[in-house]
Amino acid sequence: MTAEQQLELLTAGTEDVLPEGAFLERLRIAERERRPLRVKQGFDPTAPDIHLGHSVGLRKLRQFQDLGHQVVLIVGDYTGMVGDPSGRNKARPQLTADVVEANARTYLAQFFKVLEERPAPPRLPVEVHRNGDWFSKMSFMDVLRLAGQYTVARMLERDDFAQRYAAKQPISIHELMYPLMQGYDSVAIRADVELGATEQKFTLLVGRALQELHGQTPQIAMTLPVLPGTDGVQRMGKSLGNYIGVTDAPADMFGKVMSLPDAVMPLYWRLVTDATPPEVAEIERALGSGTAHPMEIKKRLGRRITGLYHGEAAAEQAQRDFETQFSKRGVPDNVGEFYRTAVDSVAKNPDKPLVIDYLVASGICDSKSSARRLVEQGGVDVDQVRVDSPLFEVDPGSDHLFRGGRKLLRYRSLAK
Amino acid sequence: MTAEQQLELLTAGTEDVLPEGAFLERLRIAERERRPLRVKQGFDPTAPDIHLGHSVGLRKLRQFQDLGHQVVLIVGDYTGMVGDPSGRNKARPQLTADVVEANARTYLAQFFKVLEERPAPPRLPVEVHRNGDWFSKMSFMDVLRLAGQYTVARMLERDDFAQRYAAKQPISIHELMYPLMQGYDSVAIRADVELGATEQKFTLLVGRALQELHGQTPQIAMTLPVLPGTDGVQRMGKSLGNYIGVTDAPADMFGKVMSLPDAVMPLYWRLVTDATPPEVAEIERALGSGTAHPMEIKKRLGRRITGLYHGEAAAEQAQRDFETQFSKRGVPDNVGEFYRTAVDSVAKNPDKPLVIDYLVASGICDSKSSARRLVEQGGVDVDQVRVDSPLFEVDPGSDHLFRGGRKLLRYRSLAK
Known about the structure:
The structure is a homodimer.
Chain A: H1 3-11, E1 16-18, H2 22-33, E2 38-43, H3 52-66, E3 70-75, H4 77-82, H5 97-111, E4 127-130, H6 132-135, H7 140-147, H8 152-155, H9 159-166, H10 173-189, E5 193-197, H11 201-213, E6 220-224, H12 250-258, H13 265-272, H14 277-289, H15 294-310, H16 312-328, E7 336-339, H17 340-346, H18 355-361, H19 368-376, E8 380-382, E9 385-386, E10 400-404, E11 407-412
Parallel strand pairs in A: 2-3, 2-5, 3-4, 5-6, 7-11
Antiparallel strand pairs in A: 1-6, 8-9, 8-10, 10-11
Helix pairs in contact in A: 1-2, 10-11, 12-15, 12-16, 13-15, 15-16, 17-18, 18-19
């Protein structure tokens, strides 16, 4: 592939690629000098479960790998062992070397479900470094020299520091060191490109500054968008319970994809599958024009994602099981349907209808108060999942299956 | 001596002893437990010349030593070797270990002109530590833990940081570490008391905070006033050329003391001699009531200070030489005198008379313009020192000897 073709593929789905224009130059130099770019991503081995949100960066790295570039993973083992000495940050506990190493291994095993650890040439095996390799050898004096390369004021410009400082919330001095450490990782491995999430942009730029001070060409800073979770709104995360883990069983993975709101499907196609930009464009067109049914596209998405982590056979099986279970639970093909207009006519807020609105609109219940009671008694499923709250909002833009007691009705988001 | 007596002696001449009341308690505990207090002072071995300004702290330490306490000197060799990695601070060059060690030895040799390195029991030998002993063994992780014990906001409260931050002058992150390092020195040597100059108060308090976090009783922070130089106004310092070095030859030392303005004599007695508080009080009384002539008190001061650094015999010789040289230069005992009223009558600003006012008032010159010319031609000495500027101010509160061409007259500050 030419540098220009690589640029198109590699910048697809990214948020920022800084500085403007430099990435194409870097790709051209690599092409001319016939050397791979060194593409870095770091991670803190704190909680050992990764999900599709993490895979956004990994998929991008995989594209680099497929194009023959050198992927370099940095395990932040050293910072993990430090924890938060001020004791204020519960998310940063002090971990023993054993725990950090165990977490790192678990993480890497999951990473290699996306990246190829040892691919066939000309693709390159992934390079893995633990930043303790260099930080554990640094003396107090080395640390002071590193700290001397950045000013307090510039560091406090970082969004979260700026907000906390303005709000007079304590910031410990060691916290100013973490971005410098991450930046120094780029120096240590001579990164050409570093990938990170949106909120890491500042740190990626610190890496550029430190590389320049160490006589290196500063890295390209590439940020990727945040993936919403299965609720379609909030960032995917373990604590919110809206995540799809890369080690989830095929059936769970497929089922969770099927529960996604239709609106986020294009984003998922773009960020967490191996679909090419033209393929994604085609899917968006089909969804937009109504030539494909959203349910079918979603099944393809579930099959594609499950296939990436469990292979095509397991994905096919997961789909079959999903469809069988759907019918086993007694969902006849010719189940009765109801439409948006019915919901609009009963909902207080037609933009955000509640489960009880659907129950009344469908005729399952004859009043909102009886619908409320039925939900509270645990008698209502939406899309085969028990609903606990009468105030549960259900997206009117996607299809759903409602079960209330023994009654079953399908909601269709399309006009009749 | 009882704790109360020690308190009186040790707090004499100090500026702050913090926290209020704690020092007496600490002295009582030491008395009760029959253990000496550990009294710390640190210094950076950057420029190898020390002067009476530095001796203010050393004299206070000597009092502690004489009372049987343990003096602990910290050589800041480690910070000296770091220098200023940002390259902005010229006063903090990066020194080699050899230079730092040579400076430290020179410094210590000078310190032991005030402190007794190995006194006879029950007084205790001075303990000397190089802070590289502990800092060179600290890992990056140890540094992060140390940095985690203080917040950015609290550190930026330090006067000079606050001013620079407000003025948008760069502060490198490593600079925030220096106060923590000095504070950690107190932890390392388990200091009971730390001495410092006025502007070090903040750092002494950082030491208290760190000790507490390390489970130690926080040290007493004792600050000492700044000694004015031979001009009587500006802080004594090498760059201002207004200093009396502790290694100055006896004659120079004596002569420089003789050039002091009368007004600062009590401060010198208090801060840089071994005079007891009652003795200082007596001198102040004598000066105030006019029962002693300032010149005589100044000679005693010169003799006392010179004696401290060169022994009594050398000091006596220095005084004799000074007096002989004075008369050799042709100052007859019965030189003519003039008084303040004469100066007041010609000076534009009688509070701050200029050398030319004295020349006219004394009759040496018959007009200010001829006095100006005489000064500009290099023909005027005040107190045996050539004066270059017609606008040179001469303190009307002390006696002076004026020479203009071949004429010689003594100014008397006392009323006739």
